[in-house]
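hiii so my PI (J.) wants the whole complex modelled not just the main chain, which honestly fair. so below is everything: two entries, each one labled with what it is. i double checked the lines twice but i was tired so who knows lol
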Amino acid sequence: MSVFSRKFRDKTALFWMIISLVILLLMPILLAIGLYLKSLPILNGQSFWELISESDWKPMQGKFGFLPFITSSLWVTFLSVIIAAPVCILTAIYLTQYARKKVLAFMHPVIDILAGLPSVIYGVWGVLIVVPFISKTVAPFFGLQTSGYTILAGAIVLSIMVIPFILNILIEVFRTIPEELTEASLSVGATKWETIKYVLLKKAYPGIISATGLGVARAFGETIAVLMVVGNVVKVPSSIFDSGYPLPALIANNYGEMLSIPKYDSALMLAALILFGIVLLFNFLSRMAIIRSEKNQ
Amino acid sequence: MKSKIDIKNLNLFIGKQQILKNVNVQIPENKITIILGPSGCGKTTLLKSLNRLTDLYEDVKVSGEIIIDNEDILHSSQDVTAIRKKMGLLAQRPYPLPMSIYKNVAYGIRISESENKKTIPQRVEHHLKQVNLWDEVKDRLNSPASRLSIGQQQRLCLARGLAVNPEIILADEPTSALDPISSQAIEEKFIELKEQYTVVMVTHILRQARRIADYVIFMYLGEVVECGTAEEFFTNPKEEKTKAYIKGAFN
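here's the output for the full assembly
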């Protein structure tokens, strides 16, 4: 092969790599622009602030208030991460600091399988186990009556789903902490728990934030499993035993139907845009938190 | 020569592999003892078994005795945290704890001595002065320790170890990541510190051993080949392997 043709191939390869990268970077931007353009009809009629702070959702009458969906999403998401994060942190600490290496080696594929299970399976599990458990056991314990299709059910199912994701990152976070740091702490007379509490958790803090942030972002967008157990009632929830209607469920349940109603598809596109924006915001916030805490270490 | 640490018939296995083979040595008090040998000979393992950091290894089996102040520290009834507190550890690279300069030094005092909280600032200052770091950091005690240079970090780690009033200083190739000037600072510090402490240091640098050693333990493949005073070791080695090592045959 001539020198010219070899150099040409070299350049061509590089060219395609850059093109791939550009496509990758353009995707979310194009997505956002597309959603924005599609939701313009509804945004032209009402202010954005009005739309997200109104709780009236009557498409037939042209009333589109997104507040019930946004609050439902926030409730389900935060509750699920509040359940999942401590479980993940404790498990990751046990697996990396206490368990034998064989146990960790065994757990890795198990976690990957859990992460790879289709979400509809978690949804069915939620309907069969979690929903009845809440209606027959948990709610009566608090003196309440409910069908079980609640924010709490959604959060429990969701927490089980995000655990493998958060856990995988946390295991990596704790594994990359140098053993010498543990030795340094132990050698001044600290116990193992003191070492974990004062040194390892502190060192892992940025990682814990980023893992939790990614968990939130994932939980926020999760659709099928949640909509199967959360009740899908349009109402701003006031307790975890209320039903809710998260944003992804709104889009999945209604898109493709009733699109003859004026502005209805535009409203759903706006729901998607809000979802997109909130996920982006959480990613951004957790990244900021990481940068700040890394500076302070 | 009074011995501080008395190691008797120490054997250490990790799984089926024997890392230390029947080690019998005495480490003299208030001297610098250098554990010398090519990499992979068990120097670090020997050092870490002195403060039982070898407990952290998986599948480790230890037999024999390590007697410090008339007590066998390998005996299961011993309080491991108290044993470790007796010994300051300096690792190959500095590993400052993820906290401020001040808190790094105060850490050991805070967790182990709950009584005298009021004296902590004075003690932190004292130990930072002890390692000649005070003047460099006194205006930024609350900034993260990771912002110090590597050489400063290593001195900080030494101060952190000294802060819990140990009797012994264990050092595992403490200058291997440092520039020549920082290395010299550590070596000079050790010579000063041996007045009050017993220093045990692992190194594979012959010249460093010549510069600061009072007593030398030479290891090869998990066994102690020869041990004795530095003078005798370097001028009149008895074993063939020692002679070869001093000439540079293993490096």
